[in-house]
Amino acid sequence: MLDAKLQNVLSSLSQTARQLNAPPSGRTAPDATYVKLDTNENPFPLPTIVWQSAIAALERQYLYPEDDNLSLREAAANAYGVATDHVIAGNGSSELLGLIYRAFLTPGDSVAMLSPGFSFNRKLAMLQGAQLLEIRCDESQPLPIEQLLLGCTKAAKFVLLANPNNPTGTFIPVADIERLVAESDRLIVLDEAYVDFAPDCGLRLLSRYPNLLILRTLSKSYAAAGIRVGFGLGHPEVIGRLRNIQNVFNMNVIGHAVGISILAHRAIYEENHRHIRQERERVASALSRLGFSVTPSQANFLLVRVPAGRDGRWWQLALEKQKMLVAFFPDKGLEDCIRVSLGTTTQMDAFLAAVSDICGCPKLEISPAAQQ
Asked: Model-level pTM greater than 0.85?
């Protein structure tokens, strides 16, 4: 029972905040003996030259970071082939996604997202008093263009597309995205967090369509999830207004230094990306032989439908007992699925051994090529 003083404090919250219960304190973080395959991190260490930039940045820890992230924005502009005023830098692309909601939505508005999609969008919409319209799609029709243009989402202030999509890993042909952007007069937000593992990207569309805003991050393909560096790329009128509502000194000096260094040395990561793509094929094939159904993925993870008789939550818990962490989603249509991030060969061998053990199957043989 809340005492009177606390009750008075809570009653002063905004209507939206009152709808949110305080989250639990959380459980103890898993120790280093667990294989962490639940949040799509890239497990490889930073290249030496990037690591050295982070160490050097610590010598400037007593200074505020550069205002408006100018040097980092210039580095991103050079890397992605756009002008600096087309770039906003953020504390991860999740910060930028929150800015887009704040800038474009007022209570009663709506936003459209393909489903299944990034669940954090539900909270962002609720915080703005807006409605999130989740449009179901499948592999046979990855982008329902007519529905997005003319259906119930016609009044949405913007449309969210993730390509490749999370949590499915599916990829939408860029030609389909271009048709949607060309025929729509709304903002299309294209989240390309996993695009370095995919066959194509939407960067070439930016110069032709002012209603396109692309999000990029260094978390997934550049092994910098804990450093939090993301970018938004779009028309300078849109980008400038987002920058204007951004928190002052939103990033730290280490994020600036690491981001600039990664962007200058992206070629170093090509072997990393090649490894993830190879592991994606190897693990998908192995899981298929064990009776799982694997959604074709162009990301650094696999969405896997588990064998009949158990649901995804059961498999998540069973694997956790074997010190394997994978993701489970209770959303409609995903109850029988787990999502598995792709890591090192050693990590994926351990994961496949655990799955084989739970299935009661002999441990899968690992090809010599997969061990390289």
From this structure: yes
